[in-house]
Amino acid sequence: MAYEMVDAWRADGIFQISADHQQARAVRDAFVQSARFFAMPAERKSACVSDLTYAGYIASGEEVTAGEADSHNYPTMLQADDGHVLLIRGMHNTRTVISRAPQPHSLDGDWSTYEVAAGNAASYPMPFRTKDGTLFVFYRETTHDIDKKVPTDTRPMKYIVSRDNGLTWKNSGELTGRPFVVGSTNRADNMNEIYIGQLRQDPLTGLVHIAYTLAGGGPTQHVHDFYHRNMYYVLFDPTTLHFTSAAGRDLGTQVDDLDQETYLKIAETPLEKPGDQKSPDYIQQVNSTFGRPFVLWFTYDDNAVTHNKVSRWTGTTWETTEVATGLRTREIEQVNSVTWRVYATRDGKPNIETYLLTFARDWRPESMIPTAKPVQRIELIGGFHDPARILASGASTAREVAVADGDIYVAGHN
Question: Are residues 106 and 100 in contact, defined by beta-carbon separation less than 8 angstroms?
Answer without folding.
Answer: no
